[in-house]
């Protein structure tokens, strides 16, 4: 029994475990494993904390993004409203300007018509006066009738103007 290799392997193994037990290697190994487990647990806690912090930051950035998008939409809608208002004002100003220019043109046309009528009347009166002078000069005697003609011409000119 002592001569077999299996016996001596078993004996060496028992001796090895006895030496390990004597030098309390199992406590060192257990302590090392416990320390490693504690380190892993601490790293897991740190990872959880960092994950929660990252989720909070993500939520914060998403909220800020939503607020920025809402603000951008508000700015766009306000700009559209201002553009529409400006377009309405511009349209109204253009219409008012066209109306003023139309009125001014109509006034100038009416003034030109009035001036033309007055010019025609004045020319007609001068032609009538000239014709009346010729006719009266031919038919009336020169002395007494000249006074009558001058008086009529003066009256006629004041009545036509």
Question: Which helices and strands, and how do they pair?
Answer:
Blueprint: H1 5-22, H2 25-139, H3 142-160
Helix pairs in contact: 2-3
What key attributes describe this structure?
single chain; mainly alpha; rod-shaped
What does the model show?
- The protein is built from 3 helices and no strands.
- The longest helix is centred in the middle third of the chain and has 115 residues, at 25-139.
- The protein has one domain.
- It has helices spanning 5-22, 25-139, 142-160.
- It starts with a helix and ends with a helix.
- The protein has 161 residues and is an all-alpha fold.
- The radius of gyration is 62 Å and the shape is rod-shaped.
Give a short synopsis of this structure.
This protein has 161 residues and is mainly α.
Q: Unreliable runs, pLDDT <50, ≥5 residues? A: none
Shape: rod-shaped
Helix content: over 70%
As a whole number of angstroms, the C-alpha radius of gyration is: 62 Å
N- to C-terminal separation?
A: 165 Å
Number of domains: 1
Major beta-sheet overview = none
Helix and strand composition category: mainly alpha
Proportion in β-strands: under 5%
Average pLDDT score: 88
Number of helix segments? Answer: 3
Secondary-structure element series: HHH
Find the count of extended strands (DSSP E, 2+ residues).
0
